[in-house]
Specification:
This protein has about 300 residues and is of the alpha+beta class. It contains twelve helices and seven strands. The strands form three sheets. It has a three-stranded antiparallel β-sheet, covered by helices on one side. A two-stranded parallel ribbon has the order 1-2. A hairpin with a 5-residue loop joins β3 and β4. α2 crosses α4 and α3 crosses α4.
């Protein structure tokens, strides 16, 4: 942006109230500032990827949700909101240096502190929340689907054991880590005896933190989501999530139109910025800007 004269130092001279957000993988300084990367790279050097995955397996990246969307986009928005509040008090804008690497690291503060207080002390895949525990795990059902178990607290674990029709007095203690693999095998055998639908019925009235693992399509028709209108159907027939969180007086609404093409709103935006039709046509002819062909209601 600096090469085009659009860096923050230039623009803030013209408008000191400007809030200029810079979202990159490694941040604006340091030896990696100008290196390319992806979510998996940002997680790896943040120390986060080393903690994700199953026992005796390679580290497993959680698709690109953690660094790209969580540590990147979401925290960048938080930074913009903070800057807006600061500007309301001081009248001054500022530059936001949003690093996906640092954002992922910040979101993973719990993992780091958990090591210090004894919650997350074992190797990858051997702890309570990283697939090590038999009561925080997924299990295959007889129809090839899965159930998700998160029965951490003693009362939920007791309900879970009861729903499996097991005798709690004959089982190892819940937190006996030396017996976790044994319990995983036992629970897997239990879940393999029924279909996912049958297990949903079994746990319907039991508070045990057990839920079905649903596909994207199945999630849309789940009774809870339907009652809360958690998904909305768009023009092409697909469903998209409604905005979250929900605000009581100014809730967001999911757009019902199709996704816009690249460059679809270029002319509209540039006209609002003061460019003439002649200037915009010249930019289009030189392939400097895109020019979408479809119309959108987004």
């Amino acid at each position: 942006m600096e090469r085009m004269g659009l860096g923050p130092s230039h623009l803030l001279q013209s408008n000191p109230r400007l809030i200029y957000a810079r979202l990159t993988g490694y941040g604006q300084s340091g030896p990696l500032a100008y290196k390319a990367g992806h979510d998996i790279n940002y997680l790896s050097i943040a120390g986060v990827l080393s903690m994700l995955g199953q026992k005796d397996q390679n580290p497993l990246p959680p698709v690109n949700l953690l660094a790209d969307f969580g540590g990147g986009g979401l925290l960048c928005v938080v930074g913009i909101l903070i800057a807006l509040l600061e500007r309301a008090k001081t009248g001054q804008g500022q530059i936001i240096d949003s690093s996906m690497t640092e954002g992922a690291s910040y979101l993973s503060t719990f993992l780091r502190t958990s090591q210090q207080i004894g919650i997350w002390t074992g190797p990858r895949g051997t702890n309570v929340l990283d697939s090590g525990a038999p009561f925080y795990q997924t299990y295959r059902t007889s129809d090839g689907k899965f159930m998700a178990v998160g029965a951490i607290e003693p009362q939920f674990y007791a309900n879970f054991i009861g729903a499996l029709e097991l005798d709690a007095s004959s089982l190892p203690h819940q937190m006996d880590t030396s017996k976790w693999d044994e319990l995983k095998r036992l629970f897997a055998e239990c879940f393999a005896r029924k279909t996912q639908g049958e297990w949903v019925t079994t746990f319907k009235e039991i508070d045990a933190c057990v839920t079905p693992v649903l596909s994207m399509e199945e999630a849309v028709s789940h009774p809870h989501h339907q009652e809360r209108s958690a998904f909305v159907q768009v023009k092409d027939g697909t469903f998209v999530p409604t905005p979250a969180p929900r605000l009581s007086t100014s809730p967001g609404h999911a757009a019902s139109g199709l996704q816009p093409e690249v460059g679809q709103h270029s002319r509209q935006v540039l006209l609002e910025a003061g460019y003439t039709d002649e200037e915009i046509n010249s930019l289009c002819e030189d392939n400097i800007i895109g020019k979408g062909t479809q119309h959108s209601r987004l």
